[in-house]
Specification:
CATH architecture: Alpha-Beta Barrel
CATH class: Alpha Beta
Order of helices and strands: HHEHEHHEEHEHEHHEHEHH
InterPro entries: Metallo-dep_Lactonases (IPR052350)
Helix content: 40-55%
Number of domains: 1
Mean pLDDT: 85
Number of strands: 8
Radius of gyration: 20 Å
Organism: Dacryopinax primogenitus (strain DJM 731) (Brown rot fungus)
Strand order of the largest sheet: 1-2-3-4-5-6-7-8
Number of helices: 12
CATH superfamily: Metal-dependent hydrolases
Protein name: Amidohydrolase-related domain-containing protein
Shape: globular
Length: about 350
């Protein structure tokens, strides 16, 4: 192990109790919320062989590029190496019009024997809408036969956004917040906390969850040396604020590929393997604080990251992401949660 690797450890999230005391909207959580399997007393040792740890099933919460249900058949063909383990998917519609078309054709495809097996695995359609504008769901989507999620970019806070998010949750839709703001600014995190505080119901009320997208992993330049990354504004803000977001019990974090470039393949020459190891070191630097804050029960796997992420083979990201989680010394149920159970609970409920 090099000197640089010895110097860089996954930092724990700093104690932010004082910060929490100053937040107006932060709800209280029971202690059990911070003790999911595999996170109490640090990560247990010895570390298991990640190649031997596989989730019981896979739910992919970020299947993109689907404009027609025929496109989905093509996606399954490309996912042949993990198709048997994939038990459910969330289709991320590229446009509102595409979402309407998919929803309209859904019943007929469900009854078509050529599509039935594939369609039964569709848990939800994610509909792109901008909550910075007044939220009004198109009439066609009011009579849907499939679960819907509403996905909105987040660049800054506004009363309109807070009211829109509240309306989404009151309408019994899963809300996906795609964070596009500068994560190196404390203001971004504080505005996000404020929006959640205004929109989320009290602890006694039960509504659909909120999924934070493009937060794990932030788009910090891959070429930034690890020792400099530790003091990078984005990483420092990430550590300072991620715990505060976890205090909202219905908030989850999506685990998708970063914008660093194409995901390195599982097999390749020494240069490919070197790049892959570097990816894993950096991913775990962000994954560690999220696990400390949210536990493994509120992290959801997705094969799609931000809209700026280069197109990669989904199986390359799945394998890399699975190894990163497994190498943290987790129990089997934690791996099952991240790659299947958590998304099923959120999108199928």
């Amino acid at each position: 192990m090099s000197t640089e690797e010895l110097q860089v450890q996954i930092p724990l999230t700093p104690n932010t109790a004082g910060v929490g005391a100053r937040r107006k909207h932060a709800p209280k959580l029971p202690l059990s919320a911070f003790s999911p399997p595999g996170t109490s007393s640090g990560f247990p040792l010895p570390t298991p062989d990640p190649s031997l740890m596989l989730p019981a099933s896979i739910i992919d919460a970020g299947v993109s590029g689907i404009r027609t249900w025929e496109d989905l058949n093509s996606w399954w063909t490309q996912a042949a190496d993990r198709a048997d383990r994939t038990k459910g998917i969330v289709v991320q519609a590229p446009t509102l019009e595409a979402a309407e078309a998919l929803d309209e054709l859904y019943p007929g495809h469900m009854q078509n024997h050529a599509y039935a097996a594939t369609m039964q695995k569709v848990l939800c359609i994610s509909v792109p809408m901008d909550l910075s504008k007044e939220f009004t769901l198109p009439e066609r989507l009011h009579k849907t036969e499939i679960h819907l999620a509403i996905s909105s970019p987040f660049t800054s806070a506004s009363e309109t956004y807070a009211k829109g998010l509240q309306a989404v949750l009151e309408g019994a839709y899963v809300a996906e917040i795609d964070v596009h703001a500068d994560l190196g600014e404390d203001k971004t995190w504080e505005e996000l906390e404020d929006i959640l505080g205004k929109a989320l119901p009290s602890e006694e009320q039960k509504r659909k969850p909120v999924i934070l997208k493009n937060l794990l992993i932030p788009a910090v330049g891959f070429n930034t040396p690890l020792v400099k990354l530790l003091t990078h504004p984005v990483y420092k803000a990430f550590q300072d604020h991620i715990t505060q977001l976890s205090l909202f019990p219905s908030v989850y974090v999506q685990f998708g590929p970063p914008e660093w470039g194409p995901v390195p393949a599982e097999k390749g020459d020494e240069e490919v393997q070197k790049e892959r190891r570097e990816w894993k070191r950096r991913i775990k630097m962000y994954l560690g604080p999220v696990v400390e804050a949210f536990g493994f029960s509120r992290i959801i796997y997705s094969s799609t990251g931000s809209s700026k992420s280069p197109v990669s083979k989904a199986s390359d990201w799945y394998t890399l992401a699975r190894e990163c989680v497994a190498e943290m010394g987790v129990e089997q149920d934690a791996l099952d949660g991240v790659f299947g159970v958590n998304a099923l609970d959120v999108y199928k409920a």
